[in-house]
Every structure is written in C-alpha cells, then in structure tokens.
Amino acid sequence: MEFNQLESFISVVKHNSFSLAAKELYTTQPTVSNNIKNLEKELNTTLLDRTSKTITLTDSG
C-alpha cells in the first residue's frame, strides 16, 4: 500500500469525483483511477461502487 493510493481514495471520497480529486492532487484522472484500482487489488476488496453518474462507498470503503 502506498501513500498516493490512500491520498487518491480520500480525495475521491471527499469530492465524489475522480476528476476533481485529480485536480486537487495535481495529477491526471487515469492516475487517480489506477491508484484506487491498485489499492482495491492489494486489499482484495471493492472500496467504491462506480456508475457513470455516481460514486458511492461500499461497506469495505
């Protein structure tokens, strides 16, 4: 687990947006997505439910 993965996760939850999280972290949206994907893989669980319009925390998140 890396700090940037946790930072990305917290920012996405805070803003409810991958693109706003990327802006806050001065990075790209794909980088934020990959950080969260890798975090979920390391933890072997889904942290966020994503649809085209919404992002919600799972019970694990």
Write a structural description.
- The chain is mainly α.
- It has a single domain (3-57), classed as Arc Repressor Mutant, subunit A (Orthogonal Bundle).
- The protein contains three helices and two strands; from the N terminus they run H-H-H-E-E.
- The chain has a two-stranded antiparallel sheet with strand order 1-2.
- Helix 1 (3-15) crosses helix 3 (29-43) and helix 2 (18-24) crosses helix 3.
Task: Give the SSE layout.
Blueprint (H helix, E strand, L loop, with lengths): L2 H13 L2 H7 L4 H15 L4 E3 L4 E3 L4
Antiparallel strand pairs: 1-2
Helix pairs in contact: 1-2, 1-3, 2-3
Main features:
61 residues; mainly alpha; Arc Repressor Mutant, subunit A; two-stranded antiparallel ribbon; 57% helix; 10% strand
Distance between the termini: 15 Å
Corresponding CATH architecture: Orthogonal Bundle
Please summarize the sheet with the most strands: 2 strands, antiparallel
How many extended strands? 2
The share of residues in extended strands comes to 5-15%
List the uncertain runs.
none
Q: Helical element count?
A: 3
Query: Gyration radius, to the nearest Å?
Result: 10 Å
By CATH reckoning, the class would read Mainly Alpha
Mean pLDDT: 94
Task: Provide the domain count.
Answer: 1
Kindly name the structural category. mainly alpha
Helicity, as a percent range: 55-70%
